[in-house]
Specification:
mainly alpha; 3% strand; 337 residues
Length: 337
């Protein structure tokens, strides 16, 4: 197999082609966005602290909503209505996880997350939910710690899951002690968010550094969750996590519309053992192509012993290369108009 660095271009290109189909802004928000908490006073308070149940979808989603509201003023210089806030990628992707049933109990030993059961429950056994915890709790608590949220750092705490409590952190101090490097990177991101001199690319660089740091820890801690899934779903999970690593070097802009359109081409349901991309009948042509390309990228990465990723990172250090990457995406976009 020859080393081929075109796969990241192909995957993102296929997804970006869907941007030609403009979306109504009201359709792009995560499910239950309007109904979720939007301020700290919407949460229960005990002993002077806000108590947030991170294993209840609206409550976890609400922390993103507060985060987007509190950081809006810092992104106003880039666009109106907070659309260019690069933190949108986190809640929008979490909404896709909820909508496609990926936050439910994969062991099927409980009705947590099931449409016929406790559909707002987030299962601690869900690989997707656990990785998202690290990409929701840490960004939120680091924002509290940085002063952006306007409350003291010791005034908010999260409820623990029913098991594996040691794999998670629940307040600013415990996250710093358990995951110091990731929290440091999230704090660095927020310091640059507050800086008037930061450019859009500056913020993307620090955001992706923090994102990758959190995801790297989460993948190691929750690798054992993959055994609960069909082979096809587990393979997709591995491929998706790897692909996110490839999105970081070119500084993919995780704004509202772009993230929404991006993930429209991801699987719309859990994958079953009999699913074989690119021949899944109830998936669109784009969804099949993206799923197949993700699988090939994972195989190339595995075959080259990470050499392809090292070369990709080196290539994307060039401003010219990143610009070319975006121009290719724009060309594909206009080709599908």
């Amino acid at each position: 197999m020859a080393l081929d660095l075109s796969w990241p271009y192909l995957i993102v290109g296929c997804i970006f082609a869907s941007l030609a189909r403009a979306s109504n802004i009201s359709d792009v928000y995560p499910p239950l966005w309007k109904e979720s908490p939007g301020q700290f006073s919407d949460y229960k308070m005990e002993n002077g602290k806000y108590i947030i149940n991170f294993w209840h979808y609206p409550e976890r989603l609400g922390t993103y909503k507060i985060l987007l509201n509190k950081t809006a003023k810092y992104f106003a210089k880039f666009s109106p209505e907070n659309e260019q806030n690069i933190l949108w990628g986190l809640p929008v992707h979490h909404g896709w996880q909820y909508q496609t049933g990926r936050l439910a109990d994969p062991t099927e030993s409980t009705d947590c997350g099931r449409k016929s059961g406790d559909h707002l429950c987030i299962s601690v056994d869900s690989w997707w939910a656990d990785l998202n915890y690290y990409l929701s709790a840490m960004p939120f608590l680091a924002a509290v710690d940085s002063g952006i949220m306007g409350i003291p750092s010791d005034k908010v705490t999260f409820l623990p899951p029913p098991k594996d409590q040691m794999n998670f952190c629940y307040n600013v101090s415990s996250c710093h002690s358990s995951f110091p490097e990731a929290m440091k990177k999230w704090n660095e991101f927020y310091q640059h968010v507050k800086s008037h001199s930061s450019t859009f690319d500056d913020l993307l660089e620090y955001l992706w550094a923090a994102h990758v740091s959190s995801l790297e820890i989460a993948r190691k801690n929750f690798h054992n969750r993959l055994k609960y899934y069909s082979k096809q779903e587990a393979d997709f999970e591995r491929s998706w996590a790897l692909f996110v690593d490839y999105l970081a070097p070119p500084l993919f802009p995780t704004t509202l519309i772009r993230t929404y359109e991006f993930q429209k081409e991801l699987p719309k349901r859990m994958l079953m053992n009999e699913d074989r991309a690119p021949f899944i009948r109830d998936f669109s042509g784009f969804q099949n192509t993206v799923l197949f390309a993700l699988s090939v990228l994972h195989k190339v990465h595995k075959y080259t012993g990470t050499l392809s990723f090292v070369l990709w990172k080196t290539l994307m250090k060039s401003t010219v290369a990143r610009k070319l990457f975006l121009e290719i995406l724009e060309f594909i976009l206009h080709s599908f108009n």
